[in-house]
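User: Hi! Is it possible to get a structure for several chains at once, not just one? Here's what I have:
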Amino acid sequence: MIDLNFVTVLYVGAIGLLVIGAVGLVMCNNVFRMVLALVLAEAGVNLLLILAGYRGDAAAPILGFGPEGAQMVDPVPQVLVLTAIVIGVGVQALAVAVLVRVFHAYGTLDMRELKAHFEFELAAEKTTEPPRSTEEPAGGRPLSPVPPRPHPGEARS
Amino acid sequence: MRNLAAILFTGGLGFLLLVIASQLDFGHPPMVVGQEILDVAGDQVGAANIVTSVLLAYRGIDTLGELSILFAAATAAGLVLGHRHGDAPSDPEGGFILRAGADLLFPLLLVVGFYIILHGHLTPGGGFQGGVILAAAFFVGVLGRPAKGLNHDVISVIEGLAGAAFIGIGLWALFLEGEFLKPMLDKGTLGDLISAGTLPLLSLALGLKVGSELAGLMTSLSDTEAREP
Amino acid sequence: MGANVVDWMALLIVVIVLASAVAVLTVRNMVGAVAASSVVSLGVSVLFVLLHAPDVAMTEAAVGAGLSGVVLAVGLRKLGLWRLEDDKGTAHALVPTSQREDDTDA
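Assistant: Yes, the chains can be modeled jointly so their relative placement is included. Here is the combined structure:
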């Protein structure tokens, strides 16, 4: 059978999680999925940090668990990751709260529609024309131009 | 075009990380600070759990910073979500299984949470883990009966007192010994419940603060009205 | 010096974690995506146990697989992407929000 290396397998897993999270952050159109990709990236980073403090055939850093006088893994990255995990859940809760308010204000979670809404509103604040050129954009038009936001009570066309 | 650029970016990021991080000596960490701490932590602090002794004694001020970040996140989320109108319809009650399970689980989760908090310096555990379990104990009740809700005043008082107790113990150590958050009181024997000085008290303050904060945050999230866009 | 049980276990769990991570980004059902992110956190907490870090494993299991999943699911409920049977009488898990005006109040 092939010779597996414990550290290599975990290393590939941590980097893979981080790259999948980064791909999700950059390429997702739904803003909620971007928050989920952030969760993945945080898990990958925490795994990589703990892996950096791992020491082969050592025990957990608790006196009285392993045999007497045994080597122990590095406790400092574990403390940092403990803090990072709890901070991560705080950030996720705040992100979900902001998403709920954005949804109540604009009615959509698609990033392209939100971007069009923002550009309309910013242009209205500055009393200039919103970006609406007569030529086709370079990569083709992703969506039809978003009409102005309907008044509450009207159906969206 | 955008997808191609995104794929190129993430491919480059993955390659960069793979090459740079593979230079680390996995499996044989240098452990410059870690070895020092492992050698002296048992005698200096007196706690069997070295991670807890680093968290509350050696790097106590990082824990204080993390508490303030959690407080800022919970306050900001409560601010963003806004006030609930009094006559808004509340969520429907959970089914029978959820209500009965929440009533049965509430005392069990409380016991487990306090056990993990108080034994934080002996076994794996501590303030954060026990605090999260305490928050879950209160939030399951809110999920079962959304109309009853939590008493936000009591939660705020508990959170404020626990945070003040954490800082108060640190200031007490500052005035008596000259170092903020230095563990005081008798060290006791290794492995006893009453040992390691002020570490169990700090764990208790930490657990209560984190638990009440997360319970308040989740309740305010579940209390927002599901308004039509 | 072949691979022992711990190495095979780590390989299996890493495969599960990476597959669930891909599922988070590709599944259309948003509740399924939240569940897959909980699976990722649970798998990562098992990997922490294999790395001799019990404190971190307990925190990741309690926070990632428990609290984070609950926060995201409650957020889904408020965003209208996950409706239960009691909400306005429809039992479909994913009714797009643009059809919400069709409900009539009793």
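The longest helix of chain B spans residues 152-177. Chain B has eight helices and no strands.

User: Great, thank you!
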